[in-house]
Each structure stands twice: as C-alpha cells, then as structure tokens.
Amino acid sequence: MHEMVKGANVGLSALSEDVGSVMVRLSWSSPSGEGDADVSVLLLTADGKVRGDGDFYFYNNPVAADGSVQLLGKAPTADGNEDRITFDLTAIADDAERIVVAASRYEGARFSDLHDLCLTLADGAGESLLRFSIENPGEVGALLFGELYRRGGDWKFRAIGQGYESGLAGLATDFGVDIDDEAETGEEAAAAAPESQAEPLPAIPTQATSERPVESVLPVPSVSPVSPDQPVAAKAPSRPRTAKKKVTLPKVAKKSLAENDSWRVARLFPASALKSDRERETRATSVLLSVMTQVPEFGRRLTAAFGAPSGRMETFTEVSLPNGDTPRRPDGVIRVERAGKLWTALVETKTNGNSLKPDQVQAYADIAARRGYEAVITLSNDVELDGSPLVEVKMDGRRKHKVALWHLSWAEVAHQAQMLIRHEGVGNAAHAWLLQELLHYLQHENSGCHGFQNMGPAWVPVRNGIDDETLCQGDSRAVDVVESWERLVRQVCLRLGGELGQKVLPVQRAKRGSDPRTRRAALADRLCTDGRLEAELRIDGTPGILALCADLRTGKLRTSIEIAAPEQGYPLTWSKRLVRQLSDAPADLHVEALLAGQAPGPRGTLERLRPEPADLLPKDGTPITGFRLSLFRGMGNTRGNAESGFIRSVDESVDRFHAHVVVHLDRRTPSSPASSPARTREAVAAG
What are 162's strand-pairing partners? Predict the structure, then answer.
C-alpha cells in the first residue's frame, strides 16, 4: 500500500487497473470512546467552487442522484469504526475537476482531541491502494483530508491535511455553498410535519435542530403498510442546512379493518409456508434481489459498498454456469450496466444457522475469475470480523483479473432497510411499501434471516470451565467465545441503530493498526481469569457510553452508563435533578455517585433514592465527578436465541436499558441556578 505524506500526490491508474469505482475510508480514535466527526464531500469546478449547493454531500445529503457519490456511513472495524464513501469516477460530471473529502466536528469539539486520523483509498476489488495519516491536526473544527482531481484524463489523489477553524459551515461556504442554518419556528416545524396515520413512517420530515441529532422515539417492532397517498419524502430545503434532520415518528396508528385479531394482513412475501432450508434460501435470495432492483436507493446502498458502479441493475436467481462436467448454480447474480460496461457479482446465500461452505465459495470465486466477473458476495446470518474471515478463499495471483470477496449479514440488510424507510425517506410510496414488506419478511420467525443467533459450540464448555475454574489461559475455545461476543455486539449495534435512526457503534480503545487476533487473544485470557465479557456502545445523542458486561460466574448481565457531573451548581441539585429525570425509570435501577480519586461513592436503588436524593452525597464532602446508572438481569443459559438463550437476554437488556433509562437523560449541562436562599441551603446541605 502506498504511504502518502502531506502535500504528496499519486495517479490512481499507477496503483491499480480497477479504479473506475473507489472507496475512501476515514478513521480516527478517541481515548474516551466518545469523540467522533462527520464526513462530507464537495465536487468543485476548475475555479475551486461548487456548481451548486447540490454538489455538497454530507449527513443531510448523503447520495448523489446519479450515484457518483455515496456516503455509506460508519462501519465497525477491529479498531473501532470508520466512515466509508464510494465514488463512481466514471459517473462524475465532466465539469467537476476536483472532489474534496473532509470531516467536521460539532459542539465546539476540535480534531486535536482525536487520535490516529487516517484516510485510506481502495479500488473496486476492495484492495487498499494508499494510506494518509494526519499528525497534529491542530485546534480546528473541520479538516480537509485529501482530494481526487483530474489530470490528463486520469484521476489522481492529493494528501491535504489542512484544518478549518470555522467548522463545516465555514468550510462549505468557502467552496461556494450557500448555507441556511436559521432555525425554524415551532409553527413552521408543525406545518412541515404530515398528519400520518400509518405506524412506521417511511420518510421523516426535516426540522432544524442543534448540530447533533436529537433523541428519537424507539419505533414499535410491527411493520404496517403505507397508504398510497401518504407522503414518503420530506421536501428538500432550498439551501443546505448543517443542522441535522430531526427524526419524528407518527403517534397515531391507522385502525385495522379486520373483524378480529386472528385475521392476518396479506403479505407480498409470505413466509409461513416455508418448510426446508433450501426453500428459505431460495425465497430469501429472490425477495432481496427483486427489491434491490425495484428500489434504487436500497439497491445502490448495498452494492456501492461492494465497488459496483451506479447504473441500471438487474438481478437473477438459480443461474447455471459451466464448470467442467458439473455446472454450478449460484443462488443469485447481480449485474450493473454503465456506459456499455457490465459489473457482475455472484451471490451465495445461507439462512438459519447454516454456515458458508469454503469449497462452494472457492468454486464461485474461480468461476468469477475465469468469466471476468468482479465479485462474489456471501450472505448469511453470520457477522464477519476483521482478521477472522468466515471462509478462506485462495485467489490465483497469476490471473490478471481480480475478484473481490464480500460478505453481507442479514442483520445489515435489515438495518439498511430500516434506515431508509423509518428515518431517511425513499422516492415514493410504492418503494416504501416494498421495503416494509422486505422488513416484515426478514423479521418473520420462519424466514431464517434473523441474524447472528448462536454463540457456537465453545459457549457451553467455556461457561462450565469458568464455573468450575478449569478454564486456562490460551484455550482456543475462549477465543471462539470472544469472537462470537464481538459478532453479537456488532449485530446489537446494527439493530438498535436501525430502530433509532442514529449511529450506534462498538467502542474499541485499542490503538488503530493493532493485530485483531492478538487483541482477541488478550481478551480471551481476561475472560479465563475474570469470567466476564465486556463491551461499550456509543449511541449518538446520549450523554455517555453504554457499557455491557456479561459475568459468566454470577450469570448476571449488567447494562450501565456513566454521566459526567454538570460544571455548575451543587451536588444536591444534581442529585435531585437526576432523580427527577429518572421518574419513569425502573425502581431497581442502581445509581452510584462517582468520586474524585476513583474512591467508591454512595449508591442505592432508585426506589430508595427517590424520597432521599441526598443519600447520593458523600458524607466527607469528596467532590462528585459523575454518576453511574446500572440495571441487572439474569443471563440466558443456552447459546442460541431461544427464549432462554444468552443472545435474547443481551438484546432485551440493551433494549430495556435504552428505552427506560437512557432516553430520559439530558445531554445538556443545566445552567447554574440564580443565587437565592434556597441555593444557599442546598450548598450547606451538600457540605
């Protein structure tokens, strides 16, 4: 991989022959786990300005109409997460000479607080071509990572690493974007919100808010059809707003015309009659591929991550391909045509707990290489991890044509569908209805597309070994459990993020670039000694990191969050305010005061603290730095997602904690109350 330094440039064609479609990844790390930034892209003409406001792509405008630019959002990696952007360079307009890739922070945060800032660029086969690390970005709110530019008919990349103190709005304005960030009034916001009657709204009306996304209401799990006259996409503002869109879900469900509750709504994709795994695989493949072709936003979102260009898409199932004496029949084929050129991917699907077969995937990779196809896509309930591929496939290095091997989980398919119909909006009501039918099918108990559902054969032996203290460090079964735990955590992030319409990502505090196998081996050794599996989730719009701990010795799951103490006011005020915020939280919620110096602080259940918030204050006057809120529940015994399963207990714990605790917490630090006798009495009571 070509290492870049600030100011250097390189021609893409000198690095790879497959650069018609490229993917740019931006990554960074935060010691606290809470630091983050948003990516943006600007298409510029020869004079260094955008042709119009539509050439500014960011969180409120993530996809170009022609598919030439697509912000795919964040994806988990072994080191944490990264932002991905795909560019179909063959579709970039001729008068767009430069493509600037940038990122911005919010609420006054600076890039100097982030570590390991890095840009990588990969070709259409997924092979990383170049890497640019930025050292000492400075006290800036926005940062230009680099740019793609035309030279002599080819595309080149230049490493920039230049900061902007004025943030995203200032950066965009300097490149000719006309920003309109005046907040709407309450009346305007109310007028913009449609009076929907269908339960999940497939498109979300926009409303100017603070730069961070506001809290959204968790949607109900049921999926209802969309009426043809229902609005499906909010009208775009005349000028870009850097304030993020607000997620607003409907409150009134349309009354059913069924005579009684036993009547079932007719579905486009019925799943109840499926009998065998083969039927499930065939039906699931056909359902997904057909919806991809009929809903361009959805099909493009999935295929862009695989290096496919934008263009006319067609999909096929049960295609017979010659392979010696025994023809091969992949589950599906995806073809995208652009400018007379075809991009082709073979699809191999598995449902239920069925694993991918290495020899089968290898055969498809060989066929794809011989026939000049670009990719093989595997689709199953498993979640792939960096450094731990689901199948090992050997590629013949002597072949000039490279075949990319990609994996997609059913959980990610459902996540992308949820993000479109519940939070971002699609083109029309028919498309929204198709996506909802797809979601209903994937969530049906008989579809076999429920995502990761099995902790693996090592789960029970490891639990028993921890219980009777016979599990030793270095045991490979502990590594298997750690990998299954990481897959489960990633799936929890996908599911919860789709329901909330917000970024939910696992937090990794390891230094970027570290070997994921070494990191997992260290976590496995800790599991052997401590008996605990731990994870942290960062949910956009929440005041802290959600921590999850599965104690295999006690059989307890703990979900918790730590919130910092306000900068102003007095401890008794903070305690009272916190108890008021948690008025609807479970009575068994544990609340603990965090003290300076890491000393144990006062604690108690919410039931006990409600009448006496002052019990959270230390008697010796030690300063309070924050509060920890925790819920406990029993842990499932079995390895799967059955009623008594471990995976189900983790899902329910995270959902309960978020819905009944996290949503009641306020990100804002309360303002200092005015001086008054009451404040003086509180100060005396606080010590």
Answer: 144
The Cα 639–Cα 457 span in angstroms is: 8
d(C-alpha 30, C-alpha 109), whole Å: 12
**Cα–Cα distance between 209 and 216 in angstroms, integer?**
13
Q: Is the distance from CB of 543 to CB of 666 less than 8 angstroms?
A: yes
For residues 63-89, average pLDDT: 84
Count the alpha carbons within 13 Å of 630 in the hemisphere toward its beta carbon.
19
Nearest to 647 by CA among 461, 495, 470, 419: 495
Backbone angles phi, psi at 337, to 5 degrees: -110, 130
pLDDT digits (tens, 9 = 90+) for 221-265: 334 444 444 444 444 455 777 776 655 444 556 788 888 888 888
Give dist(CA 83, CA 96) in Å, integer. Answer: 23
Specify burial of residue 430 (Cβ count, 10 A radius: 0-12, 13-18, 19+): middle
Residue type, 265: V
pLDDT value of position 14: 93
Show the beta-strand stretches assigned E in 488-641. Answer: 504-506, 532-539, 546-551, 556-564, 590-595, 603-605, 624-634
What pLDDT, on the 0 to 100 scale, is given for residue 184? 42
Adjacent-strand bridge partners of 188 = none
What is the value of pTM for the model shown? 0.81
Query: Residue type for 262, please?
Result: S
Over residues 453-460, mean pLDDT = 91
The predicted structure's pLDDT at residue 643: 63
Half-sphere exposure of 429 (CA within 13 A, CB side): 10
CA 208 – CA 245 distance, rounded (Å) = 6
Pairing of strands 341-349, 375-380: parallel
Mean pLDDT of all residues in the chain? Answer: 83
Among the ranges given (477-481, 635-639, 674-678), the one the predictor scored with the smallest mean pLDDT: 674-678
- Please state, in angstroms and rounded to a whole number, the distance separating the CA atoms of residues 421 and 424: 6
38-44, strands of its sheet edge to edge: 9-11, 154-164, 142-151, 98-104, 38-44, 56-57
CA atoms within 13 A on the CB side of 114: 29
**Over the range 314-333, which residues count as b (16 or more CB within 10 Å of their CB) and which as e?**
ebebeeebeeeeeebebbbb
Question: What tokens does 526 get?
Answer: 């800790």
Coil, strand or helix: which one is 93?
Answer: coil
Number of C-beta neighbours around residue 69 at 10 A: 25
H/E stretch holding 657 reads helix 646-660
User: What's the confidence (pLDDT) of residue 203?
Assistant: 34
